[in-house]
């Protein structure tokens, strides 16, 4: 198996990590952004074409809406960040063999403030 030892591949991000970074930029902006605006908000050195490709993939997955603005497209998230995170958590839970054990381990890893917030959401009988 080939391994990369530095060079141009050393700074490459995993596709999912770059998607997450781009979604974070769009959520924090609160308004539609063009690919060039997203590129400017990310770490320097990321190619415009790479940003455009990832935006296109996110749009194809249904994560982003886009509309034409002049010759470019402006992108914005279809759902708020909390909704997407909750869906990801649900997907992980559904993959578990023993859902109760997965939930127990999850709660055990929460810091006290998050645990208190969860208990408040579940109600006084939880």
Automatic annotation (TrEMBL):
One of its GO terms (molecular function) is DNA binding. It comes from Streptomyces roseochromogenus subsp. oscitans DS 12.976. Belongs to the BlaI transcriptional regulatory family. One of its GO terms (biological process) is negative regulation of DNA-templated transcription. Keywords: DNA-binding, Transcription, Transcription regulation. This is CopY family transcriptional regulator.
